């Protein structure tokens, strides 16, 4: 991967919240800790981890919805201001949410919903041009014939069609980056693959950089080029998808991968991290200030040092993991 291909970079970002603890009172909880990742043109980067590991918080920081407590977000190498990024920056980074039902105004027709960003960003202004632009976008997400969709409202669509509309609306802003936070998890199993294939095609054909947030390692394997594995707020392993899944370094990744059949289809939704996680002993850590590895209480490979000192970063090829005893 070449440096110039990187579009959006999280550079050592953390996010804290002040929360009420029944015993300690108001305490700072670190939800994402020193995370770094890069999204590159034409590539899909999967962010995998169990519920509560901090995936959405990281995605929302990349999308400028919330701001890092520390660290930086860089777009084309330029550090972005914490508060109120420029409008063009917001245009270039679009977010797809999990729920295609909640993210579209049910009262508006598709010609308005998708045409609005075209007008707003000055890509089209005359009625005819807006309509042509909306039709092209509907076609690009497979809603055909486009003319039959222009005057429909979200309520006249299936769940899969709505998620296609959400994607078309995001594409209307001509983004360089799509942040897709579990974009298929609320869709019927039978249409998940179609939406994943659409994301893959948009990335291949239009060069969009995609962050694909998921619980589901099988779907990460299916569409992504690169994968980062999150545990308890930290990225504990990252690398090209084949390397991470075929030869994981981190015991946590190894447990996730071993718990799913090699040929698991990406759409079945049963091989989920949260279920696999039940096979591990203990529960996910509270984000306390213990000095060692956050995975230590559950790790089958733990040794004495794991409870005492933060694990170092170890590398193999293009992959790396934070672990004292990486998988051979
Ligand atoms: N505004 C907030 N205030 C306090 N804690 C928060 C806030 N937002 C998120 N958290 C906590 O941060 C942790 C990570 O949440 P996040 O939504 O990023 O996880 P996730 O990996 O996306 O989980 P899921 O897979 O369930 O969507 C959770 O423990 C959550 O309770
Ligand atoms: S550092 Fe130790 S506890 Fe943590 S994942 Fe590696 S072996 Fe397991
Ligand atoms: Mg989430």
What would your notes on this structure say?
- Keywords: ATP-binding, Nucleotide-binding, Transport.
- Residues 8-257 form the ABC transporter domain.
- It holds the Pfam family oligo_HPY.
- InterPro entries: AAA+_ATPase, ABC_transporter-like_ATP-bd, ABC_transporter-like_CS, Oligopep_ABC_C, P-loop_NTPase.
- This is Dipeptide/oligopeptide/nickel ABC transporter ATP-binding protein.
- Helix 3 crosses helix 4 and helix 3 (110-120) packs parallel to helix 5.
- The longest helix has 18 residues, at 189-206.
- By secondary structure, the protein is an alpha/beta fold.
- The chain has one domain (3-107, 153-322): 3-Layer(aba) Sandwich (Rossmann fold), CATH 3.40.50.300.
- Mean pLDDT is 89; it is low at 267-279.
- The chain contains 11 helices and 12 strands.
- The protein is globular.
- The strands form 2 sheets. It has an 8-stranded mixed sheet, sandwiched between helices.
- It is 31% helix and 25% strand.
- It has helices spanning 55-62, 87-92, 110-120, 127-140, 159-172, 189-206, 217-223, 241-246, 251-258, 273-277, 304-308; strands at residues 6-21, 25-40, 44-48, 70-75, 78-79, 93-96, 177-181, 209-214, 226-231, 234-240, 313-316, 319-322.
- Adenosine-5'-triphosphate binds at residues 17, 19, 31, 49, 51-57, 215.
- Adenosine-5'-triphosphate is lined by residues 17, 19, 31, 49, 51-57, 215.
Describe the protein's topology:
Elements: E1 6-21, E2 25-40, E3 44-48, H1 55-62, E4 70-75, E5 78-79, H2 87-92, E6 93-96, H3 110-120, H4 127-140, H5 159-172, E7 177-181, H6 189-206, E8 209-214, H7 217-223, E9 226-231, E10 234-240, H8 241-246, H9 251-258, H10 273-277, H11 304-308, E11 313-316, E12 319-322
The protein binds adenosine-5'-triphosphate (ATP), iron/sulfur cluster and magnesium ion.
